[in-house]
Amino acid sequence: MGMEFKYTKITSDGTVINTDDTLSLSEMQQFVNGYIEYVGNIICNEDGKELKLPPNKLYPKFLGNIIIQNRFDPED
């Protein structure tokens, strides 16, 4: 079949939300509060610095809410 994705959404206050749901572009944009940017397997707000978003508590290198995209093989 091929690789699929699972997502871990992390709010800026450190709340972790695991989901098996497929996320659309608009759902990703809504969660990060704006345009998305991929940094490796992390999806963050492209304009986080300009918007003065707070540092993410679990990933302080990133600003605001983030999404971690995890690849997996459903046949494993």
List the defining traits of the structure above:
76 residues; mainly beta; five-stranded antiparallel beta sheet; elongated
Task: Produce a short descriptive summary.
It is built from 1 helix and 5 strands; from the N terminus they run E-E-H-E-E-E.
Could you describe the 3D structure shown?
The protein is mainly β. The protein has one domain (4-72). The protein is built from 1 helix and 5 strands; from the N terminus they run E-E-H-E-E-E. It has one helix at 25-32, and strands spanning 4-10, 16-19, 36-39, 42-45, 66-72. Strands 2-1-5-4-3 form a 5-stranded antiparallel beta sheet. It is elongated, with a radius of gyration of 13 Å. The model has no long low-confidence stretch (mean pLDDT 92).
H-E order: EEHEEE
**Helix/strand/pairing category:** mainly beta
Instruction: Kindly report the oligomeric state of this protein.
Output: single chain
Contiguous uncertain segments of 5+ residues: none
Helix count, per DSSP?
1
Main sheet: strand order: 2-1-5-4-3
Strand content: 25-35%
Indicate the overall shape.
Answer: elongated
Mean of all residue-level pLDDT scores: 92
- Quick one: biggest sheet? 5 strands, antiparallel
User: What is the CA-based Rg, rounded?
Assistant: 13 Å
CA distance, first residue to last residue: 11 Å
Number of domains: 1
